[in-house]
Amino acid sequence: MGFVELTVLNNRPSERRALGIDLGTTNTLAAVWHEGRPIVLRPEGKSGVMPSAVNIREDGDPLVGRIARDQAVVDPTNTVFSVKRFMGRGLADVEADAQYSPYALSETERGVVQVEIHGKKYTPQELSGLILQKVHQMACSVLGTDIHEVVITVPAYFDDAQRQATRDAARFAGLDVLRIINEPTAASLAYGLDQKSDGRIAVYDFGGGTFDVSLLSIEEGVFQVLATAGDTHLGGDDIDRALIELMRMKLSDELSHEDMAEPGFLQAARLAAEKAKIALSSDPEHEIRLVIPASGAHWHHTITRADYDALIDPLIERTLQACRQALSDAGLEPDDVDEVVLVGGSTRIPLVRSRVEEFFGRKPHTELNPDEVVALGAAAQAHVLVGGTRELLLMDVTPLSLGLETMGGAVAKLVERNSTIPCSVTEGFTTYADNQTGIDFRILQGEREMADDNRTLARFKLSGIPPMPAGMASVGVRFHLDADGVLTVTAKEESTGAKSTIEVQPMNGLTDGEVEIMLEESITNAQSDFDRRRIVDLHAEIGSMIRAAEKNIESARSELDPESLEDLGSALAAARAAGQSDTLAKIQETRDKLEQATLPLATLLMDSVVRNAVAGKRLDEL
Amino acid sequence: MSESASCGSCVDCGAQLETPLVCTSCGHLFTNEPAPGPFQTLGIPVTYAIDAKALKKRLLQFSRHVHPDFFGTADAQLQTAAERNSAQLNDAYEILSDDFRRADWIIKELKGPSEADERQMPQAFLMEVLEWNEVLEQARAEGPDSAAWAALDSLDSELRQEREATIAKVAEALDPVPTEGAETLAQIRRRLNAIRYLDRSLAQIRTMRVGASAR
């Protein structure tokens, strides 16, 4: 269906278009604005939903998507799932995930988690880049045209480092990010387009790895976010883990702790958990079946819906906790919400639906496909950003407060959470010691009172303050959050005009330099990968040329002139000697020389083929 | 006060301007450095009393003209202007839609004392503060399911009533905007300090409750 509809659209090449991409923990998909509404891009007969899985083969070639996911059991240590949970995080942040990861994790100097596969380290940014590249390729082939500009969605509760990591992933994929937007906000756009009614809505977004809740008001096409709250480490993966823990507990008599920490076991258990989770959304009970990879033994255990509900209820309670927080921040009661929209695969769970209904006192909307609604909203926002419409406007907020460390290690908040962006705030600071000529600033993100409990986004120094008594200097610090939620901090000493500006480079993030080096490496690698493939192909080609020449040379020997024969003999000798370690240029030369030398033979053979074909036939029979 | 709702007419199309940020008729963006005051930005007269619905309508109306989303295809200079004007608009709305910050801004504009200049709260208020603090502390110490925790309910409603009464007094003193009297302004500042305290305490109660509702 995708092909046919979209070829019509391609007849209008002047129209600037951009893709909306939902880069999910579990699945990734792309959508585009088409004839007044957003549509998901899917190859004919497919869903368009691509698993966010990457498998790295021994030669370093990546497999992405369904084909990678299918490698999980046979090649667990080289198959990465849920890499989104590592984005913008340090090793300490992902400790809980690490014990379920069948691959080795390490950290760069700047605290970026790395996954080790076949002895090579990959950052989550690079792996997410591979996922984006693949979904982009798929989208472009459906569209039949290349679109480089994209809007990518992230959980509303992603902090600066996680957002920056997402941007870097897009750079690895060679994409131009018009805007990073929040998933629940994107969902609300898709919902609002559908319903076209004003009011307050709550978007409950329970995905594979993250939970978000956003409260919005929709008024004449303006979508204003009132408050948002969530947990970047709470999703379907945690439900899988609860089930894996259950399996481990039930199996603890039969298997050792080591057996159950083994990569093959973990991936098999993870897949069984996923299957159970999906089955229990519709069936009253489910038999978990597991083949223990080490022994090949079969194991099964029946779990009822009631057992399951009891197992996951604490996780759902955490989501409701975030809902309470968002309502409190917006100054609203559950009754004030007109509609509740469910987003994310985990909202298919019956207990999630009933608890949410109970909490807000109204039946949530489920008519939109929870897997697609975010990508659809992203496509709508992309349409706005390329100048496609002025009917829609999204006014989003910053999910976390921003501030500076004060003397004594407390936090001075400059931008409160849930402030509408873009925004600017300036606050005055001064010196605390006589003749102090510099002030160190530590930029913080988070809600905690003490600086050390929050995430440090960056540190910078304002120097060049003229010597004067303590408290006399007047330093204005300006925080500007742009429409992307990217923070720029400027500090200025008023009397001298000494100025220092920093665009925040988050900790646990890649520096521009690092991204460039990695990009260069991947481009160089891409070249060498390409070369390697070409060499293999040339060897194969030379091989068949040698075989063809050998087969025919005897019968043609008498008819070939001695010079051609000599040429052919030496070219064949050179071709047989060609080794795997030859450079591309060398092997190409060998092949070309062989082709040249076999030309007389080929001509002769062609002639004889023609002669044989026409032998005994009259001219008019031909 | 020099603030006024009218900001002249558009240099481009001559239409009467509703805000110094943009001409809502032809879409011309203007540069304002430093940022105009919040009342001028939203194109309303300086009064403490405000129609919240009308204010939000203006925010949305002007956002439709200045939001950076609508300048995605424009040149870099226009994009920067949209970014800056949108921030100025949002900042102005944040101030005006908050009763405390609105009063605070008017007092500063009238050259009244800042929070740092006048740190006192009204005398009558101080005794109550001690009592309220004690209730809060006790609830925090004894935790959920204690009698002290149950007392948070009545404390919460008492603080809300007190806030309402205090902000009403502030409103009364600020409408119409006083033209003179340093003492009047100092008195309003003391009341605002009381509101600051009440807001902080109410926020603490909220945090304690949200925290406790996690099973």
Gist?
Chain A is of the alpha+beta class and 622 residues long. Chain A is built from 14 helices and 27 strands.
Please specify the SSE layout and strand pairing.
The complex is a heterodimer of chains A (622) and B (215).
Chain A: H1 2-9, E1 19-23, E2 27-34, E3 37-40, E4 50-51, E5 54-56, E6 62-64, H2 66-69, E7 79-80, H3 95-98, E8 104-107, E9 113-117, E10 120-122, H4 124-143, E11 149-154, H5 160-172, E12 176-182, H6 183-195, E13 199-206, E14 211-219, E15 222-231, H7 236-251, H8 263-279, E16 285-291, E17 298-304, H9 305-330, E18 339-343, H10 350-360, H11 373-385, E19 393-395, E20 402-405, E21 411-415, E22 423-429, E23 438-445, E24 455-463, E25 475-481, E26 487-493, E27 499-503, H12 512-556, H13 562-577, H14 584-614
Parallel strand pairs in A: 1-11, 11-12, 13-18, 15-19
Antiparallel strand pairs in A: 1-2, 2-3, 2-4, 5-6, 5-7, 8-9, 9-10, 13-14, 14-15, 16-17, 20-21, 20-23, 22-25, 23-24, 25-26, 26-27
Chain B: H1 38-41, H2 52-66, H3 76-96, H4 99-109, H5 123-142, H6 147-174, H7 182-213
Helix pairs in contact in B: 2-3, 4-6, 4-7, 5-6, 5-7, 6-7
Account of the 3D structure:
- The complex is a heterodimer of chains A (622) and B (215).
- In chain A, strand 8 (104-107) and strand 9 (113-117) form a beta hairpin.
- Chain A is built from 14 helices and 27 strands.
- By secondary structure, chain B is mainly α.
- Chain B has two domains: 1-97, Orthogonal Bundle (Helix Hairpins), CATH 1.10.287.110; 123-213.
- Residues 1-6 of chain B have low confidence and may be disordered.
- The chains are: A alpha+beta (622), B mainly alpha (215).
- Chains A and B meet through helix 9, helix 11, strand 19 and strand 22 of A and helix 2, helix 3 and helix 7 of B.
